[in-house]
Specification:
Blueprint lengths: L3 H15 L6 H14 L9 H15 L4 E3 L4 E3 L8 H19 L20 H10 L1 E7 L8 E13 L2 E8 L2 E9 L3 E10 L7 H5 L13 E8 L1 H9 L7 E5 L4 E8 L2 H8 L6 E4 L1 H17 L7
Antiparallel strand pairs: 1-2, 3-4, 3-7, 4-5, 5-6, 8-10, 8-11, 9-10
Helix pairs in contact: 1-2, 1-3, 1-4
GO molecular function: DNA binding
InterPro entries: CBASS_pafABC_assoc_protein, WYL_dom
Pfam family, one: WYL
């Protein structure tokens, strides 16, 4: 990947094929040319041979296979490539934002962003390289509580993004039995140690499969949860599901009912409470009790005192 425009071309091809319909080389070429023109790229004419070469480069460079179907006379991305789709989509979204901002030449009032909050993304490359090469890392870590920042020595296994924040997943060298998470925005003085570690065979994705948020609570049972909302909240939850396991059970003008299969954690309780105006817990009863207790405490804290 020698240039930004080359990476963009890769992503344009992936986006067109992912849209479905088994596009031909000609259709992919036309799509890439249109996208390049709309993004203001200089070279906008490509041959079908260039598209074939790009498809080959995508497989080697982005680890995404684009196959040709003789039966459908077009290209597709195999179903077993699904685990890589979310990562690719994040890259696509990042390029969309980058291109939009680059196109906004000084018109500050047309791009309205939230106040900048450091995410610790400057640590990503160092941590990923250390995890891949099995090197121990050391850093100073600030917890959200009032305790003082402490030095941590960690065997890095992966990084994970949750709700806009990035986290390091790994074990502390002094207690290699509990998988822990560390927010990158609270890491400072990061250093890669010269000593390497023996990686324990663990499937990180599986460990987080039934979790909500960043924490893994193995002692929490995985439960089937059924929730009801009004149709307005349902529209939001269709566009941004609560969890990857979300299934729509009922969807009409009166109500929106979904089921999720996960561990009921405090993070999940906080998430569904954000839609308290229409939330109704159908099952399990234990979750309904937790929601009621949460709201009762909130009511007691916020009672209006009428002065006589």
């Amino acid at each position: 990947m020698s240039s930004l425009s080359q990476i963009q071309r890769y992503l344009f091809v992936i986006r067109r094929v992912r849209r479905g319909g088994y596009p031909s080389l000609s259709e992919i070429r036309e799509h890439v040319e249109r996208e390049c023109t709309s993004h203001g790229l200089s070279k906008v004419h490509f041959s079908e041979r260039t598209v074939e070469r790009t498809i080959s480069e995508i497989k080697s460079g982005l680890d995404t296979s684009i196959e040709y179907s003789r039966a459908r006379n077009g290209y597709f991305i195999p179903d077993d490539e699904g685990d890589n789709h979310d990562d690719i989509e994040r890259v696509l979204e990042s390029f969309d934002i980058l291109n939009a901002l680059q196109a906004d030449h000084g018109f500050g009032n047309t791009v309205l962003t939230e106040p900048y909050r450091p995410l610790g993304t400057e640590h990503l490359f160092t941590l990923l390289r250390a995890a891949k090469q099995h090197f121990v890392v050391e850093f100073t870590y600030d917890k959200f509580d009032d305790s003082e920042a402490v030095k941590r020595e960690i065997t890095p296994y992966a990084v994970r993004q949750v709700r806009g924040r990035w986290y390091l997943i790994g074990f502390e060298t002094k207690s290699n039995d509990v998988l822990k998470s560390f927010g990158l925005d609270r890491i400072s003085d990061l250093a890669v140690q010269k000593k390497q570690f023996t990686r324990v065979e663990i499937d990180i994705k599986t460990r987080f499969h039934d979790s909500f948020g960043i924490m893994v609570y193995d002692h929490f049972p995985v439960e089937d949860v059924v929730l009801e909302f009004d149709s307005l909240d349902g529209s939001y939850l269709k566009s941004l599901p609560l969890h990857h396991s979300q299934q729509i059970l009922e969807d009409n003008s009166e109500r929106f009912v979904v089921s999720v299969h996960l561990r009921i954690t405090h993070d999940f309780l906080m998430e569904i409470s954000s839609r308290c105006s229409s939330l109704k817990v159908i099952s399990p009863e234990s979750l309904r009790i937790k929601v009621v207790e949460l709201f009762e405490k909130a009511v007691n804290r916020n009672k209006v005192i009428v002065e006589k």
